[in-house]
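User: For my dataset I need records formatted as: sequence, then structure tokens, nothing else. Please produce one.
Assistant:
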Amino acid sequence: MTARSVRDKTIVLFNYDWDEAEFARLSGAWPHDSAGFDLFSFPSNVNLIGFDIERFVRRLARKASRHGWRAVVSNHEQFGALAAAMLAEKMGWPGTAVNAILACQHKIYAREILQRICPEATPRFDVLPAAYGEAIPSGLGYPLFVKPTKAAFSVLARTVANREELQAHTRFGWWELWVIRHLVEPFERVMKAHLPHAPTAHSMMIEEPIHTAQYNLDGYAFDGEIRPIGCVDSIMYPDTQAFMRFDYPSQLTPNIQARALDVATRFLHEVGFTHGIFNMEFFYDEATDRLSVIEFNPRMASQFADLYRRVDGIDLHEYALALAHGIDPKSLASAPPTAGAASSFVYRSFDETAQIAMPSNSAKEAMRAAFPDALLFEFPKDRKSIARDFKWLGSYRYGIVHLGGVDARDLRARCEHASFLLGWPAPYSS
């Protein structure tokens, strides 16, 4: 790393949650400013009214020289990754190609590309032949998995058993329709300008339900070379599609991880993804030896960064900053690992009427005293917001804890103790 690279300032877009904490930790060596707004808090989310990515990027470009920005980074799925690519392109900075971001984030367009180059890894899919709120036509084969063409955080993604369930799932009130359209329209405008032959993003995708283990392949591209970082296991709450834990290191065998990397490499080369961090979500069915891609995320899965730092001693947020400045992440120093296994534990309620208690200050102090390495995130919400979560996500995520352990058994024991101190049920199925 050169001294100049350390001194240069980065603009971080839509810098919240994990990213805000991690980039702040690195700010001594990697100074940065932030821009963007929080989609999930008032009054910040008022900025969604009339939001235009191109105008947002032009405004940042005019400010860049005055503020000393020399690079841009974002791990934000809805707007940030695309805006960062557009700003990097406009300023001549290192970044992911705009068309590659668009191709990954448009789920139907990405699936069409995957079908062409990796048919063996492509689940059956189609566009739902109905606009938001329209009557669902007859003749669709059920069960189906349905999800928006452009969305994040598994919003409105679920399995439906029949036409009635699908109809109910796609019936939105005027406020929900307003939010959906304003979340998608900024992407749609850029998509039409860059990839005009792609289908509209104002749609939903239907596909075959797949009920098997789910994984994440993380990696990055530098100078066109696709390099793996690792695999994280996604563990679901029993009989749901809701994440319960993310475990690292993966239980997936090295040869299956290599197959996943091969699929990712072929797809990323096809869409022109030559620079930046990526995350590929996929299923693997051991009984049938079938690997099926869910989607490609053309940015870091920030929730996993802490897991890699604990187990491997590598810092993915520093990787992202290095890439933004055109520096090879291989040149970065690693730290000694602090754990043999690490997990992101997700606390959820599946009862909309349940009263979820946030831990008291004394409970949090006790947990931090027992587990000084823990990370705790709380998501208290009012009843109206919880009802929206159940409509859009099927559950209410009220907390997340990160911990490391000597191994998986030790990690479970630590999680159960930490959960007891917080007054929350430990996220294990048995």
